[in-house]
Specification:
Helix content: 25-40%
Distance between the termini: 16 Å
Mean pLDDT: 94
Bound molecules: zinc ion
Oligomer: single chain
Strand content: 15-25%
Length: about 550
């Protein structure tokens, strides 16, 4: 039965309508309140009830007002104290890759030896000559060294094996996979992009680092079929929807299977309903214009790769670039050397090349979303953005921006650039960051409340599947990391700020005419004491997710 109206009443509706990015005004003194900003905080106006008709919100208000709208064919749901928020916006994730690896093994745990010994078990259900593709996460290992070809050859000698570091910034191949990919002692490195680690005799150890490592090795594997691509996106949609996400951005389209295969998979998944969420596609610039001098296709050129019926469901605003690598793999570009290595990492592109690539992308109509983790990389990106403003109506983004100092915070604030940050990284790799950077620099990582106070647009995301990625886990990690940050501020960064970063004016707050994208939580997340979030005893969970009026996770039927 199709209901014309759905009325949710008897709960807490955190609208984020009229929300400020920070609670600063509500924390401030009477003078601020007298200036007319009193009461406004990061969660916006409150209500107890909401009514939506299919994909649009019709009204937000009191129980009495909303129940008066209900007719005989309305679905009327008593929230019984549950909370309704705008659906979470996942502004930086890798859904195609997440769906692709969802069924694959992840070798993690505490003992390196045990993790390596588990590898043969992952071949059980594979065809005899199929590649074993899996991921590994050494951040918790007793000996955090990456696996080598020898480790993999001993574990699985009779089929090609490719294991990717969870960060995506390094892979290890066994001897068969190296041979199929044509990587040997004679293979030359491409500085910043593709680095073959070698032993004392010059032979590859099997470990390859850099943003092109996966592509170069995976190119030797059979390509995913169209059906596999659609299935990967369907799996990813179900996984993110279960975490309350109604809008997802793929922050490097083309990085797993190439731009054409992935755009076709997105078109297919949207058209078939396998991907029922709002979608932003952020093509990898290197995937659409391989060399710095190549012409850059426009957003309209990319949209033309999608079926006409779904083009208006997809936003194409940013391209993805990488200025450096990751701290976990010691490929982030720092101003001063690592604490646990005699080098400072390095750039993916020389700064002049990065700036020229961003300028050409802007000329083709794209704003940029550039990965920069180390402080030296952040400087290069801000320099490049200063020389090449984003197209009108858009803003450049900086992804991760992990290592900052006072001067860089001030530069970032003055630049108008959006900071797209990943609080759950801190819960995942905090001790590794301290080992890489030392206490002083590690203490400067991701100063959320200082960025907000400086007026920088702060957006939270997860970079999933690098980490599990649930927004509520991100809120917990952020509050644990930053004693000055409030739950409302963290939730604002997962909703209103995310929608703004993706240029999605119809999402991010619950107000009349907005898309009916919402998440229902077990109770009011702003009423929970801060200490409960910090100790993960808040008990808040996602009960249901509604995207454009469709229940995409859970159910509204808890009464029956
Ligand atoms: Zn990413």
């Amino acid at each position: 039965m199709t209901h014309h109206y759905t009325v949710l009443f008897g709960g807490t509706v955190l609208t984020f309508d009229g929300a400020l990015p920070t609670d600063a005004a509500s924390r401030a003194d009477a003078a601020t309140r007298a200036a007319g900003r009193g009461g406004a905080d990061a969660a916006g106006r409150r209500a107890t009830a909401l009514c939506y008709a299919h994909e649009r919100i019709l009204a937000v208000g009191s129980d009495e007002e909303m129940l008066a709208l209900a007719g005989p064919d309305s679905l009327v749901v008593d929230l019984r104290g549950r909370a309704v928020l705008p659906g979470f916006v996942e502004a930086h994730a890798h859904p195609y890759w997440e769906g692709f690896v969802a069924g694959m093994a992840l070798f993690a745990g505490r003992e390196r030896r045990t993790a390596i010994r588990a590898i043969p078990g992952a071949t059980e259900h594979l065809d005899p000559d199929a590649w074993l593709v899996a991921r590994y996460d050494p951040t918790g290992w007793d000996r955090p060294e990456d696996p080598t070809r020898d480790d993999l050859d001993r574990a699985v000698p009779d089929r090609p094996v490719l294991v990717a570091h969870v960060s995506g910034h390094a892979v290890t191949a066994n001897s068969l996979a190296l041979a199929l990919a044509g990587v040997d002692a004679a293979t030359s490195d491409v500085p910043g992009r593709f680095l073959v680690e070698r032993d004392a005799s010059g032979e590859p150890t099997g470990i390859v680092r850099g943003p092109d490592a996966w592509d170069r090795l995976a190119a030797a594997m059979p390509a995913p079929t169209a059906a596999e691509g659609r299935a990967a996106l369907a799996r990813a949609a179900a996984r993110v929807a279960a975490d309350g996400v109604t809008s997802v951005a793929d922050a490097d389209v083309g990085s797993t299977a190439g731009i054409e295969a992935e755009m076709a998979a997105w078109g297919d998944a949207l058209e078939s309903g396998a991907m029922p969420l709002a979608v932003s596609l952020v093509p990898g610039l290197a995937r659409i214009a391989a060399n710095p001098g190549d012409p850059v296709p426009s957003p309209a050129d990319l949209a033309a790769l999608l079926p006409g019926e779904v083009r208006n469901q997809v936003r194409l605003i940013h391209v993805k670039l990488k200025a450096d690598g990751a701290l976990t793999t010691r490929t982030a570009w720092l101003r001063d050397p690592y604490d646990d290595a005699p080098h400072a990492g390095g750039p993916v592109h020389e700064p002049a090349v990065l700036a020229e690539r961003i300028r050409r992308a802007a000329a083709a109509g794209w704003a940029s979303a550039t990965h920069a983790i180390g402080d030296a990389a952040v400087v290069a990106v801000l320099d490049a953005y200063a020389a090449a403003p984003a197209p009108p109506g858009t803003a450049h983004r900086i992804e991760h921006a992990m290592l900052l100092d006072d001067h860089l915070v001030a530069r970032l604030a003055a630049s108008g650039v959006t900071a797209v940050l990943q609080p759950e990284f801190l819960a995942w790799a905090g001790p590794t960051y301290r080992a890489r950077l030392g206490e002083e620099r590690a203490g400067r990582i991701l100063p959320f409340s200082r960025l907000l106070a400086a007026g920088i647009p702060v957006v939270f995301s997860s970079d999933r599947p690098v980490v599990p990625g649930a927004p509520l886990a991100g809120v917990r990690a952020a509050l644990r990391h930053d004693p000055q940050l409030s739950a409302a501020e963290a939730l604002h960064a997962w909703t209103a700020a995310g929608a703004a970063a993706l240029g999605d004016d119809d999402a991010g707050c619950l107000a009349v005419g907005q898309r009916s994208d919402l998440v229902i939580l077990s109770s009011d997340p702003v009423a929970v004491p801060r200490e409960a979030w910090v100790s993960s005893t808040d008990g808040i969970r996602v009960v249901a997710t509604v995207a454009a009026g469709h229940v995409v996770h859970g159910s509204l039927g808890w009464e029956t």
